[in-house]
Structure formats: C-alpha cells, structure tokens
Amino acid sequence: MAPSALPAYESSVSTPRPKVLIPEKVSPDGLALLSPHFEIDQPKGPSAEELISIIPNYQALVIRSETKVTAAVLAAAKNLKVVARAGVGVDNVDVEAATTHGIIVVNSPSGNIVAAAEHTIALLMAVARNVPAGDRSLRSGGWERSKLVGTEVSGKTLGIIGLGKVGFKVARMGVGLGMKVLALDPYASPEIASAASATLVPDLAALLPHADFLTIHTPLIASTLDLISTKELQTMKKTAKILNVARGGVYNESALLEALDAGTIAGAGLDVFTSEPPTPGSPAESLCRHPKVVATPHLGASTIEAQENVSLDVCAQVLSILSGGLPTSAVNAPLILPEEYRKLQPFVKLVEKMGSLYTQHYSARGKGGGSGGFDLVYEGELASITNTRPLFAALIKGLTSSVSEGGGRDVNIVNASLIAKQKGIVVNEIHTRSSDGLVYASL
C-alpha cells in the first residue's frame, strides 16, 4: 500500500485541560483570556464546605473579596497552583497556608488605584458638605438649608497614613482641591513625598492634632489593626472627620462610635468594615446607621474601569503561571524579571538533577542524604543575576525528591525556603566573578 493510501488515525488519548474555578464576577475580557486554554467553572457563591469539596479538581482559583480561602480550603486543594485575587487586599486568603502548600497568591495592586482614590475624595466631599443628609431630607419633603451647612475643604489639612500608590493619588487630589497634605509613612522617601506635594511627619502625634480630615491607606496587618483607637481619636480636633476606604479594622469601630457619640470628632466616611456586611448589633452596623457617618458598601474598587483592570491583570497572571511562566504581582513569591528568568531556565532541571543525584548517592551509602549545608555557586553570566531563587528551589526539590512525600513535586519557588528549614537544609548562594574571562565561564 502506498504511503498516501494509509488511513489517518486520530489519537483517542487527549490531555485534559487545566481547570479554573471562578466563584465571583470577573469581567468578560478576563474570561476571554482564559477560556481558550482552560476549562472554566463559575459556581455562584459556594459555601465553605462546598468550596472544600470541589477545590481538589482545580489548578487555579480566581476570587474577589467575598470568597474566603482558608487553611482548610488550601489543604484540600491538592492540584491548585495559584489563587488570584482580583483586587489589592488578600486578607481573605490564608497566605501563610498557601505558602506552606506551594500555592502562589497573586493580586492586582495597580488596577483599582484611581477608583479607590476617587472614592476617598467622594466620601471626603460627602462628609464635608452633608450630601447624603441633604438628599434624604429633600426626598422626605424637607428643605433644611440652614441645618445642613457644611465646611469647605480648600485650605484645610488632609492627614494621610500610608503614602503608597492609593495614598499618593489621594494626596495629589487633595492638593488639587487646595488642601495642605501631611503624610505619615516610614517607608516613603522625601522624593515620593515631594512628588505628592505632601509634608512627611514622623509619627501620629505630629499628624493627628493637625488633621481636619484623616484617611488611612495601609493593609490590615498586626501593626495596623486598631491603629486609630480611643487614645488617638482624643488627640484630634473636635471638627475633624475621618475616612476609611482601605480595610475594616484599621480604625477601632467601638472607639470610633464612642467618639462620634461624644462629639470627640465631627464625622466619618466609611467604605469598609470589620465584618461585611456588618453583623447585626455590631459597632459596624451602628456606624452605618449613625447620623454623622456617610457609609458605602465597600465600593472603593467598584467602577467599571477598575473591575476590568483587575480582572484582566489577574487572569493574565493565571494564564502565565499555568503555562509555565511568571506572575507579575505575586504576594508570596519573589519578583523575577522575565529576562533574568530566561537565563536561569536552562539550569533549573540541571540543578534539580544534581540535588537528586546527591541525595540518591548518599542515601544508598546510608549517610542520610538531603540534610546539611550546601554551596550553590553562580559564575559567569549567572553571577550577575540578583534573584536566583528558581535555582535555589530546584536544588531543594532535588535534594528532597527521594525523601519527600510525593517525590518532591510539591517543592517550588513559593515554599522552597520553608521546606529547606523543615528538612534542616542550609544553602549558601554564592555569586562570584572569579571565572570571568575564561572561555567556558558560562557553560
């Protein structure tokens, strides 16, 4: 039979496509990035128990702020590679547990900067000019002009805690409104403050007594929990108004409620709370109903543009990670420049095999294998690369491949340091130019 007459057969074996779970709303353009490559499931608001039961089937999880990715969820996520938070805050993700399991957590720190800053200014103006109260009065048939006299913001002092991307944008907008801006941020350089037209102050004592409006733009961590409480509120002007479009918990809600009731401060504009929606009977619920408070249901990132931006950003990162590439905004993994990663990639398998051979050799001789101290020496072209963590992770994976449950396959750049510590492995990474000029320096 001539070759051209041979029947054509299609393989009946096909590789299943990776699966992505998206239990919250993601923009159509974000979905369009993923759907050609992966199987997408979009259950609406699964319970914690439902999430635990289905998560083993997925390689990626894309969420917004409502889904709680707990340690129990992550322990069940046997195939999960990445949790992608479409937004900035990751306080609804147990990042430590994700790191333990080698799961990358990514976010979108830049996608909603403008939206969050604009909402801060919107609340500032609404509180200053009694806009919601005026709207309610008019709708109920009132005309209370004399009762609803507000204050101008031009010439007032805006205090900002946290001069990051959102805080910086708020500062610039405040200056545009004619406000004087004081900022507290131990990590902000004088150059950043100058670019924001803000004056840096050293501590809360130098900020709070001078602020007519106070806004915080920090993550919720141990050092920022209840950052502003009774003691701090008592140092502020009685005419001061505070704003929160960052995270519930940076202001102590009970202390804030007491300060408003006592007239210690004049008002507040709040977009975030310790429990969302606020628990019935809680201080957060009382704040939402308080006549001196303008409250919104976590709308800081709720613009068409911001939701589109963060969805596209995290979906692009999911596509990259599941395709063997790198994230651009990993919360629990080091940032590696793409051009550096390309130089490292050919050596990853080599270093892993070197570690594996070492372990097999010494295990066979009854000398234990993987634990101990190792020098990982980079010469030639590799010596100039500052972030060599992929090779560090590859060595740890190789060293533990014969002794770890699962053959070392769960070791990656996310959890390599943790596993090395657990196994008693110490790796000293050495960058040297001693071989420069030799013919095979980069071989």
TrEMBL record:
<keyword id="KW-0028">Amino-acid biosynthesis</keyword>
<keyword id="KW-0520">NAD</keyword>
<feature type="domain" description="D-3-phosphoglycerate dehydrogenase ASB">
    <location>
        <begin position="343"/>
        <end position="435"/>
    </location>
</feature>
<dbReference type="GO" id="GO:0006564">
    <property type="term" value="P:L-serine biosynthetic process"/>
</dbReference>
<dbReference type="InterPro" id="IPR029753">
    <property type="entry name" value="D-isomer_DH_CS"/>
</dbReference>
<feature type="domain" description="D-isomer specific 2-hydroxyacid dehydrogenase catalytic">
    <location>
        <begin position="20"/>
        <end position="332"/>
    </location>
</feature>
<dbReference type="GO" id="GO:0051287">
    <property type="term" value="F:NAD binding"/>
</dbReference>
<dbReference type="Pfam" id="PF00389">
    <property type="entry name" value="2-Hacid_dh"/>
</dbReference>
<dbReference type="InterPro" id="IPR006140">
    <property type="entry name" value="D-isomer_DH_NAD-bd"/>
</dbReference>
<dbReference type="Pfam" id="PF19304">
    <property type="entry name" value="PGDH_inter"/>
</dbReference>
<dbReference type="InterPro" id="IPR006139">
    <property type="entry name" value="D-isomer_2_OHA_DH_cat_dom"/>
</dbReference>
<comment type="pathway">
    <text>Amino-acid biosynthesis; L-serine biosynthesis; L-serine from 3-phospho-D-glycerate: step 1/3.</text>
</comment>
<dbReference type="InterPro" id="IPR029009">
    <property type="entry name" value="ASB_dom_sf"/>
</dbReference>
<comment type="similarity">
    <text>Belongs to the D-isomer specific 2-hydroxyacid dehydrogenase family.</text>
</comment>
<comment type="subunit">
    <text>Homotetramer.</text>
</comment>
<dbReference type="InterPro" id="IPR036291">
    <property type="entry name" value="NAD(P)-bd_dom_sf"/>
</dbReference>
<dbReference type="InterPro" id="IPR006236">
    <property type="entry name" value="PGDH"/>
</dbReference>
<keyword id="KW-0560">Oxidoreductase</keyword>
<keyword id="KW-0597">Phosphoprotein</keyword>
<keyword id="KW-0007">Acetylation</keyword>
<dbReference type="GO" id="GO:0004617">
    <property type="term" value="F:phosphoglycerate dehydrogenase activity"/>
</dbReference>
<protein>
    <recommendedName>
        <fullName>D-3-phosphoglycerate dehydrogenase</fullName>
        <ecNumber>1.1.1.95</ecNumber>
    </recommendedName>
</protein>
<dbReference type="Pfam" id="PF02826">
    <property type="entry name" value="2-Hacid_dh_C"/>
</dbReference>
<feature type="domain" description="D-isomer specific 2-hydroxyacid dehydrogenase NAD-binding">
    <location>
        <begin position="121"/>
        <end position="300"/>
    </location>
</feature>
<keyword id="KW-0718">Serine biosynthesis</keyword>
<dbReference type="InterPro" id="IPR045626">
    <property type="entry name" value="PGDH_ASB_dom"/>
</dbReference>
